[in-house]
Amino acid sequence: MARFESLFRETTSGLRRNGLVAFAAISTTFIALLLFGLALLISRQVSLMIEATTGNVEVAIYLTDPVNPDTVHSLTTTLNDLPVVADVQYETKAEACERFKRLFANQPALVNNVSCDVLPASLRVKLDDPEHYDQVAAVMQGQPGIDRIVDNHDLLDKLFDVTRVFRVGVLLVALVMLVSAAVLIANTVRMGLFARRKEIGIMKLVGATNWRIRLPFLVEGLFESLIGAIAAIFFLFGLKVAFINPLYGTIRFVPWVSNGDVVAIVPWLLVVGALVAVVAGMVGMRRFLDV
Amino acid sequence: MISCQHVTKTYKNGTTALDDVSVDVEKGEFVFIVGASGSGKSTFIRLLLKEEEVTKGEIYVAGKNLAKLTAWKIPHLRRNIGTVFQDFKLLSDKTCFENVAFALEVIGKPKHVIDQRVPEILDYVGLADKLNNYPDELSGGEQQRVSIARACVNRPLVLLADEPTGNLDPSTSVDIMRLLDKVNRIVTTVVMATHDQAIVDAMRRRVIELDAGKVVRDQARGVYS
User: Fold this and answer.
1) Which domain holds residue A258?
2) ipTM of the complex
3) N or C: which terminus of chain A has fewer CB atoms within 10 Å of its end residue's CB?
4) Is A185:A283 a contact under the CB 8 Å cutoff?
5) Whether the model pTM is above 0.90
6) Which of residues 203-242 of A touch B (CB under 8 A)?
7) Whether residue A71 sits in one domain with residue A46
8) CA-to-CA distance for B158 and B1, rounded, in angstroms?
9) Is A125 helix (H, G, I), strand (E, B) or coil?
10) CB contact B206 to A (< 8 Å)
11) pLDDT tens digits, residue range A215-233?
C-alpha cells in the first residue's frame, strides 16, 4: 500500500502545482470529447432516421393484406433470378411490428397508439448496383399481391450526402480540439517534470526504475483527460435531456436518440480520452527521462 | 568490487576526460581520488553510475560489466551504489525522515521496512533527534549526514562521494570524514573524490591521483601530493 500512497501523493501534488495549466488541459479535453460525442450522436440520430424511413434497404416491396405464402415464394424466386439483385429478405407483419417498437422504444405514446395491423409485410431487396432499380420495378410491376414498390436509394443518397458534410465537419473540429488537448496535456506533464527535476534526479540516483518515475506523470495526464471526459459525458446527457427529450412525439414517426444511445458512446469517450492522455504523456516525457 | 581496465572517456566535444585509466578497488577499501578541477574525478564517478558510457575499456562493478548492462537494468546497478554530493541533493519540502524514506519508497520497499530502517540509519549518522526537521533547519554538516544516511539506507555495496566536504568548513569536514570512516568500517566500500588536502593527509588511506585524465599516482596510505 505504501507504494500506491506515495504514487498518489505525487500525482495529486502535481495537479495542485500546475493548477492553471491543468485546468486548460481539462477544459480543452472536455470540449474535444464533447464535440466527438456530438458527432457520434448525430451519426446515431441519422441512422435511426434512415432506418425509420427506408428500413435500411434500397428497394422495399410492400405486400397486400392478407399475405399469401405462395405469392411470397414466387416473388422471392423471381427476384432472386434477376442478376442485379444481391439479396432478398421477407419481413412479416410481426417482424415489422417488432422493428417499429424497437425504433420508437423511447416514445411509448406512439407505440401504444399505432396498431401493428397497419404495418405491412414486405420484401426487402438489396441491389448489386442501386442504379438498376428500373429493372426490378419493370419485372415486379403488376405482379399479384404487391401493394406498392418503393425505391429508397435517391433518398438514402441525399440523406448520406447531407449528413456526411455535417458529421465530417464536427469530427474535424473534434480532431483539432483533441490535438490541442494532447498538446496541453503534454505541456502539463513537461512542466511537472521540470518542476520536479531535482526529485527525478534523486530517483534516478537511488535506482528507481523508469516506469516508477514516469507513472505519476502519466497518471496525472490521464487524470486530467478523464475529468474532461466525464464532464463531457454529463454535458452530453444534459444536452440530450434539454433539447432531444422535448422533441419526443413532436414529429410523427421520427425516432430520436435515447439515453441508451448516449450511454453507448460513454466507453468511446473514455477510451479516446485515455489514449490522448497516454500519447500526450509519452510525448511530453520523451527525451526528458533518458537514463 | 570495482575494476576499471584501460578506461578512456572522450566527450562529444572532443575533450578527453579519462585517458587509459586502470584501477581496481577491493571490497571494504577506502579510496581517495584526488586531482585538480577538470582532472577527471567527476567523470570517473559518472562512469561508475553509468550516467555516461565509456569510450574505450571496461568497467566492472560488483562483478557486472557496465558496458553490457541494458538500460532497464541500470536502476538495479544504482541500488547497489550509494552516492553523496557536495550540494547534498536533499528535497527541501521533505523532512529528514522523508528524504531518506523517499530513496526506499521509489524502489518499492514496503512501509514496515521504511519505518524500521530510516530511524535506524538516521540514528547511526547521529541525527536521531532531527527526524522531523526540514533541511533548511539543519546545518550544512547535518544536511550532509542526511544525504549519507540516504545513500546508505539501502545497504549499498559501494559508496561514491563526490567532494562531500566541498561546501563545509574544516571542523565540520572532519566530522563528516569520521562518519564516512565509520561507514567504511562497518557498512561498505567508499570511493571519495576530493581536493581537500588536509583531509587526505589526515586519513592516510589509499590515494589515486589523476592529472589530465591519467593516473599519475596510486599509493596505499598516501597523502595529497
Assistant:
1) 2-52+157-285
2) 0.88
3) N
4) no
5) no
6) 203-210, 212-213
7) no
8) 8
9) strand
10) no
11) 888 898 899 899 999 999 9
